[in-house]
Design a protein that fits this description.
The protein is an alpha/beta fold and about 500 residues long. It has 13 helices and 21 strands. Bound molecules: flavin-adenine dinucleotide.
Length: about 500
């Protein structure tokens, strides 16, 4: 059966693209190689949405549904420290659950702006403002599946990947999968995170640091480099009654054998008291690309155990925790990016909405430049919310294809900021909505009027302004406080 839209990849962006297209009346085939939806947010264990503006629309809807499931979601904030060396705690960052805080608190502008991690006077404000959402990955994957099923228009094929594509006269006509017959669809959305479908279509892609001249980025290196953002294997620990240091598996040395050293840990609590540990990062991005996913995963497992052993020895508070799960896939921050009609760049991020004149902004974000690994930058440099234009979703050369997610039209610097999960979900929501508008008006994707796309997203309660539009803010506040009153009243 032919579908209206093929969505490749069932992560944050792919889920949202499929949902928006189906709610707009289109039939959708979503293919995902893993056994569940959610991608990096579930399979790779990155089960947290960092604070930032723009997390409206589908992310809030997911949050509301998760709230109805016991122990599925919570709000966290900075605990003892956020990389503060004098805090008397392990290096990295500690977060704690803050049940009194609300979803709207997580939409406060994250970027440091005038705040400084280094200035002790700013710490209380950072504790107030940096609120994020943590969720159980199983509940998130199941909720995503439920929302797609409710439309009655999405066929989800798990355990299936796109492999090859046929393009004729600038139009994608056929996509081959690892299982089942080849598919045709009027439109396709590449939400693979690695621009796999765009690559199969022959669309130009970029990888590694861009040279300064390419996008006029002062912070970029003079020459291109193959360096990409670092990779992390997230793991989960649970409190144990019997304190002690977990033994190293056979063949794993106690000393660090990789150049970056043991590094730091960023810790987020789950509602049930377990902790998600992000050893920032486990592998250089370039090492990941050289090893490939399978060997890289095995190497990260060894590093994780060595890191944990070291951590428990150095910081006795960790001896009362045990590893209970390692994520099923590596958390990959960056591989390929797609050359699109517009490439978001440093000047967009630094200038923000006040200086951007793009007529087609379909999502806003404000995370700082954020590179992990030996070429790490600071999580700063973004001082106000910035917009992401629809043209960042339009790959060159194929008129019925969009790219949503971390492989969209970003410079490497812009990608390091844009990539937060809720932002990726908003790109997916815009991509699916654009397919709906193209279908209704009989237009090519590139001809979808920006004003109509923005108006439709606003109707779906996606914020496109900062401060947030009052009606959207009021809706979120009301819905959230009703839900929390219901929760506490039971
Ligand atoms: C270690 C780490 C920590 C992070 N911390 C945070 C954080 O605290 N807060 C935050 O908001 N964000 C964080 N992020 C960023 C964020 O989680 C990701 O950028 C975001 O989830 C990516 O969403 P996506 O939809 O673009 O890609 P993904 O979620 O990766 O989805 C891509 C999907 O495509 C599938 N796919 C791949 N190949 C194919 C193929 N050939 N055919 C079909 N499907 C395919 C994959 O299996 C996957 O499910 C972090 C990322 C990492 C790696």
């Amino acid at each position: 059966m032919a579908h209206d839209v093929l969505v490749a990849g069932g992560g944050s962006a792919g889920f949202a693209a499929a949902l928006a297209a189906a709610r707009g009346g289109l039939t959708v085939l979503l293919v995902e190689p893993h056994d569940r939806l959610g991608g990096t947010s579930t399979v790779a264990g990155v089960s947290a949405w960092e604070s930032g503006c723009g997390g409206t629309g589908f992310p809030f809807e997911l949050y509301q549904r998760l709230q109805r499931l016991p122990g599925a979601v919570g709000i966290y904030a900075v605990g003892r420290h956020c990389g503060w060396p004098d805090a008397g705690a392990y290096p990295g960052g500690e977060n704690v659950l803050r049940p009194e805080r609300r979803y709207v608190d997580t939409l406060v502008r994250y970027a440091l702006g005038p705040l400084s991690y280094a200035r002790p006077a700013d710490r209380e404000l950072i504790r107030q403002r940096f609120n994020g959402v943590v969720f159980e990955p199983d509940a998130m994957a199941a909720t995503m599946a439920q929302m797609l099923a409710e439309t009655g228009r999405v066929e989800v094929r798990l355990g299936t990947a796109v492999t090859r594509a046929t393009v004729a006269a600038g139009r994608l006509t056929r996509v081959e999968l690892t299982a089942g017959p080849a598919v045709t669809a009027r439109w396709a959305v590449d939400a693979t995170g690695d621009a796999v479908l765009c690559g199969a279509c022959g669309c130009p892609r970029l990888s590694g640091e861009d040279p300064r001249a390419r996008f006029g980025e002062a912070a970029a290196p003079e020459q291109p480099s193959g360096r990409v953002n670092g990779v992390t294997l997230i793991f989960r620990v649970a409190p144990t009654a019997v304190a002690g240091i977990e033994a190293l598996p056979d063949g794993v040395p106690a000393t660090c054998w990789w150049a970056a050293g043991f590094g730091v840990a960023h810790v987020v609590p789950f509602p049930n008291g377990d902790l998600s540990v992000n050893m920032l990062p486990a592998l250089e991005g370039a090492e990941f690309l050289a090893l490939g996913p399978t060997a890289a995963y095995a190497e990260c497992q060894r590093r994780l155990r060595a890191f944990w052993h070291h951590w428990q020895r150095q910081f006795p508070e960790w001896q009362s925790y045990r590893i209970v799960a390692e994520a099923a896939a590596l958390g990959v921050r960056e591989t390929q990016r797609t050359v699109c009609a517009y490439m978001l760049r440093q000047t967009d991020l630094e200038g923000g909405l006040a200086t951007q004149s793009h007529p087609d902004i379909i999502a806003i974000a404000d995370h700082g430049f954020d590179v992990h690994g030996r070429h790490a930058g600071t999580s700063a440099g973004v001082h106000s919310p910035y917009g992401i234009p629809y043209r960042c979703l339009l790959p060159s050369g194929v008129c019925n294809l969009l790219v949503a997610g971390r492989a969209a039209g970003f410079s490497a610097l812009a990608a390091s900021s844009c990539r937060l999960a809720r932002t990726m979900m908003q790109l997916g929501q815009a991509a699916g909505t654009a397919c709906v508008l193209a279908s209704r008006a009989g237009l090519e994707l590139a001809a979808v009027p920006a004003t109509e796309l923005r108006a439709e997203l606003r109707r779906q309660r996606v914020t496109l302004a900062w401060p947030m539009e009052p009606d959207i803010a009021a809706y979120i506040q009301d819905a959230d406080s009703q839900a929390s009153q219901g929760r506490h009243g039971c």
